[in-house]
Amino acid sequence: MDEVRPTSGPVAPGLASLFPPGLQAIYGECRRLYPDQANPLQVTAIVKYWLGGPDPLDYISMYRNMGCAVQDVQEHWHYISFGLSDLYGDNRVHEFTGQEGSSGFGFELTFRLKREVGETAPPTWPAELMQGLARYVFQSENTFCSGDHISWHSPLDNSESRIQHMLLTEDPQMTPVHTPFGLVNFLQIVGVCTEELQAAQQWNGQGMLELLRGVHVAGGPWLITDMRRGETIFDIDPHLQPERVDQGIETEGSNLSGVSAKCVWDDLSRPPEDEEDSRSICIGSQPRRLSEKDTEQIREALRKGLEFNTKATLPPINSQRQGHDRPQSRKDSLESESSAAIVPHELVRTRQLESVHLKFNQESGTLLPLCLRGRLLHGRHFTYKSINGDTAITFVSTGVEGAFATEEHPYAAHGPWLQILLTEEFVEQMLGDLSELNTREEIILQVKKPDVEVLAGVVTHGLRLRPVDVLTNFRKRRWRRLW
Known about the structure:
The strands form 5 sheets. Strands 1, 2, 3, 4, 5, 6, 7, 8 and 9 form a 9-stranded mixed beta sheet that branches. Strands 10-14-15-17-16-12 form a 6-stranded mixed beta sheet, with helices on both faces. By secondary structure, the chain is an alpha+beta fold. 22% of the residues lie in helices and 25% in strands. It comes from Salmo salar (Atlantic salmon). Residues 243-445 form the Suppressor of fused C-terminal domain.
């Protein structure tokens, strides 16, 4: 449970040694921006996370920002978190790794909310939103980066607002802070509509952020969130969709190289010979874990996918990179929950498969056209990483080097990591067949009684699934939809 209180103000010189150095460094940046607000309102966790409390952020300060008339920036509330970085340096929350690297997770969150007329105090709901994002980071150990998107599927303030998702970008005013425990960057949350989120997925987050900066009511130069905004930027300026987004997708493709998803794959080529046969990885109830090398490959592939380059590459399967350049206690996006392999990497052989069966929940399935049109047709790759285990499914095009799926053997697996190579002709065929995912508002899957089928964790007993789970079969270079 949180409480709102004013901060205690500037630290007296005699108390500086008692004031946590990491906290003091961030306060210093806040005082640089708001020298006249030494005692801002602050939401604080009553029971700190390091004492067993549920909220990872120790504090969230709330400042009144007067905007900037010269830059056409409106007045707003500015929220700044304390706790994703290392505030204390004594290992009570974050492992201390030295001054040269990142402090804690390496960032704090900020949020800019339009100030309504007559509003004398900042709303506190953004603090709970930031605590929710912090819980995800602490529980998954997945970090955020500028350009990332977050599917929230609910109004950020629990109202009837169209602002139901988020993009992340660098805070336009706050500069990175060097603390005694490492570097801290500031990532700003930007509220967006569903249509804007989808455009960011199909094109790229940075491109959408630039469009939002150019539309005053949609964010403006400092990307201020207005929860009362009822129109998307495409409603405000209909030319943006065909001239900027569609053209960007066509010429650049998407830089979204992977997502965490509900997905699973089965090898239908033949049944496993015994319980230890690696073909049974995704058939049993508990999938095996990815080895450290496979995890490193997927992470490196996703990282490369975020870069605009002319040569799409997956790391070779015998890569010796172990990721020593980062603290082992922290993970990048889509990394496995554990880097310890149950099956030694060198003992897991790459298997060529004749037939595979894929299952996705609806949201993951609707990203298949993006995977095909925005990634594979541009010579790139796209990865689904299961949120329920270490299963991973990577689609690759013929232009991707280093993949263990080849044109001769287009379906291949290494442990629980499946790769599917699709030719351009195959991709075009699939796009035609998958057009219903983008055009039909509701797809209904009828399960006949007394059949019972588990689809991405949903058990159906002769019921209709709303929304439907998307199933596909790949068999000897052919495929078919199962809905």
